[in-house]
């Protein structure tokens, strides 16, 4: 069994403090820099209790809430290589987010947001905020860019590039960026491992050279956007064919077999309420159902990705189904 170390350590505010999102970080006595491999980390007391702004995961956590990282010890006081991560909820209670290893890159959401904002600013383009998700463990903060788009004339749509800051306090998501797509008129987000791409921030012994990482991420965004958007548009164009019962059966059994029955039923209800009957319209019904919920879960993001990739990977076979 593992325990938190109970020894009291006095936190100090340094005269020249390190900041996260403009807020000083509180570090244990004797630690001078966040780049040190610190055993215990406590972010600054930010007055976020009871306040949540635009979190589609609900009102339990503020996305940039205070976090703590503490060493774990066995019953015989032997130090484990594991660390306990806790996050403050909007009631002011510290809730366990996860157990991480000594080498895990624990980046506060606020710091990651600052890095994401710097990367966006460096493009010189106009970005629009879409939504923020934080459930106490996983964090996603999503933007679209106005001047990176591609037409898909076969389905009469325009797709724009979508950028997601992603992070986790339980090892479920690496700290980094995701680049996916949004259909502009209906604002349906479409996540795709096959056609989108990501960038996880590199680190060494818990340290990150943020200057290098910002430059590298910006270069990857610049170099890969055009090709990735073209391949995505080409795949979407193949969904312009009519959707009949044999195709629907094949899609359900082959393309999206693991989509929960409840979600499939919700998607079918939305599709049948529309006037068009293309496979693309079924795709739009699915992404609208999974993307525009008032309260979202990790499962909604996972299902969105599996649904989009399932249909796009199956698309070349649609002409053979009759």
Principal-axes shape call: globular
**pLDDT < 50 runs, ≥5 residues:** 1-39, 44-51
User: Structural class, from helix and strand content?
Assistant: alpha+beta
Give a short account of the largest sheet: 6 strands, antiparallel
Tell me the count of domains. Answer: 3
Mean pLDDT: 83
Please count the helical segments: 6
Q: How many strands in all?
A: 15
Helix and strand pattern: EEEEEEEEEHEEEEEEHHHHH
Q: Helix fraction?
A: 25-40%
Computed over alpha carbons, the radius of gyration is 22 Å
Distance between the termini: 59 Å
Proportion of beta-strand residues = 25-35%
Concise structural overview:
The chain is α+β, with helices and mostly antiparallel strands and 322 residues long.
Q: What are the key terms here?
A:
15 strands; 322 residues; alpha+beta; 3 domains; five-stranded antiparallel β-sheet; 30% helix; 6 helices; disordered N terminus; single chain
